[in-house]
Amino acid sequence: MRVNSVPLLELSGPPRARGLTHGRALAGRLRGFLDDSLARLGHLGDRPVDLDSLRPDIAAHREVVTRALPDLAEEIDGLAAGAGVDRDAAWLLQLRRELLGYSRVTAGDCTTYASVLGEPVLAQTVDLNGNLDDQIAVLAVSGPRHRSLVLSFAGLLGYLGVNDAGIAVGINLVLGGEWEPGVPPYLAIRHVLDTADTVDQAVETLRELPLASSRSFMICGADRTVCVEALGSQRSVLEGDELAHTNHFLDAGFAERDEINIFAKNSSRRRLETVREAGIPKASDTAGHHRLLSTPPILVPDNGDIRRERTVAAVILRPDLGEMRLWPGDPSAVPEQVHCLR
Prior knowledge:
This protein starts with 7 loop residues before the first strand and ends with a strand. The chain is of the alpha+beta class. The protein contains eleven helices and 14 strands.
């Protein structure tokens, strides 16, 4: 059994200072990751990649992010300085998924659910390729408006998390529309956690941001949960006391433009049906959540192929407690870690 060492980084102060702290704390690890076939991108495609060939695409994304989220753009530049890496390399760490583009054949790419029946809870697996469970960190961020706990992979400023206003946000990959220069969804989640006081504010933020790629965002507050599907410039909002999402569009209009491969879609449907049939455990039933998250088909096992998605983490977020319970790696084989804002 491999137990992953997960650093907890306290990030505070102005944006550049947060980035400097992040970069300095993980400098060796991030440089090693970038040296591994350019953040392992070379292992995931059919052709070698180099930073120079990606600089125009990175610059196009950076222009949009700097305009839409100047604080986070400054924090990324601070990350580069702190880690001692090329500025474009630090931006590449935020854009790996967008630079890879569509991959219609997936073994899995996260199963997320939330409930506000009783105490609120949001939980999910994190299914990624690239063997990223050795790159996990937890960021305790003091942002411009809120404090938050953020799950991070390989220098990402955001991935999913919970803030001290009682807002938790999870994410799923969905495939559709044109992916173009814009705000990566993970940075959008970090911005929501930094700034949103309410579920409505979180939804409005996701409506307004020029997102680079399609995603589904699960948002859970004290007494309300919604799912925002993003397809190009369009947004669909699904609402209910209990919601679950995997990797196909649930909005009927968006579903007609779903680009997921049929085999991957069958996997996505199977995982969604498993959650719905099992039922979402009560917020306080940690063992019940862990059992659901660590059992196939929700758990996507490692088949030894770095190109295939597998479960590299599982989390339970409690917006009412400001709490993140994390299993870093295969959740069936690693011990739980608990982080709390209070």
